[in-house]
Design a protein that fits this description.
7 helices
């Protein structure tokens, strides 16, 4: 697991590097570093939340459009109409084809909706775990800083996955086959699920570490209650 999490480790920005130099050494400096990294994580979360909101709004619009389209498609039973002229048949057949194309776009968006739900779960999992770890006296400031670095790496990776989805959304205005569109969405979905799995595994690892540092049976019981472990 530690090897896998190296993928999510980030390089500290220049502003943080300056802070490292200017601050005195010791626990206070370590805690200040952790706070700086945590502030960076909050900015990433804000960017993620905005993109998830955009996806959700677009999904709601398409859900409403789907109802209209399905009503129209049910009315256009071309094979049952025998008295149309060829010109009328061609006109409505083209309209029917366009509605079918839009319907395929909506089908792709159903997966996008699922992906947005997973992303929201990632953010929620981070907020839950990070909030508890920062109150947990079993972790040092240096360990908290490391955790926030890993969290930032995971959240930035998921942000890239969201960007990939927006590339697919943009493709609806350009030429891209349904197969290619679905392939890109599936890849983003798998990557997002992997991020979620890695995040939960990292949190479980830290929870086990905290409980292992308990100095008594009573303290162990307390920590299990804090982290909702049966």
């Amino acid at each position: 697991m530690s090897r896998a999490l190296k993928v999510y480790m980030i390089v500290l920005p220049l502003s943080t590097t300056v802070l490292l130099v200017s601050l005195p050494s010791g626990a206070n400096a370590q805690l200040a570093i952790a706070e700086v990294i945590r502030a960076g994580v909050k900015k990433v979360i804000k960017a993620v939340d905005l993109k998830v909101q955009r996806l959700q709004n677009q999904t709601i619009w398409l859900q409403n459009a789907q109802k209209v389209i399905e009503n129209q498609l049910s009315k256009l039973k071309l094979t049952e109409i025998s008295d149309w002229t060829e010109r009328q048949r061609n006109l409505y057949a083209g309209y029917y084809d366009e509605l079918q194309k839009v319907k395929s776009v909506i089908t792709a968006y159903k997966k996008v909706k699922s992906l947005a739900t997973t992303q929201a779960a990632i953010v929620q999992e981070y907020k839950w775990a990070s909030g508890l770890f920062w109150k947990d006296k079993h972790f040092s400031a240096q360990e908290l800083a490391y955790m926030e670095e890993v969290y930032e790496g995971i959240l930035k990776a998921s942000l890239k996955n969201l960007d990939q989805v927006f590339v697919v959304i943009g493709s609806f205005k350009t030429q891209m086959s349904d197969a290619k569109r679905l392939e890109m969405i599936n890849a983003a979905e798998r990557a997002m699920e992997r991020n979620f799995y890695d995040l939960k595994a990292f949190n479980d690892q830290n929870i086990a570490l905290s409980i292992g540092r308990s100095k008594s049976i009573f303290e162990t019981k307390q920590m299990k209650e804090v982290y909702d472990i049966n």
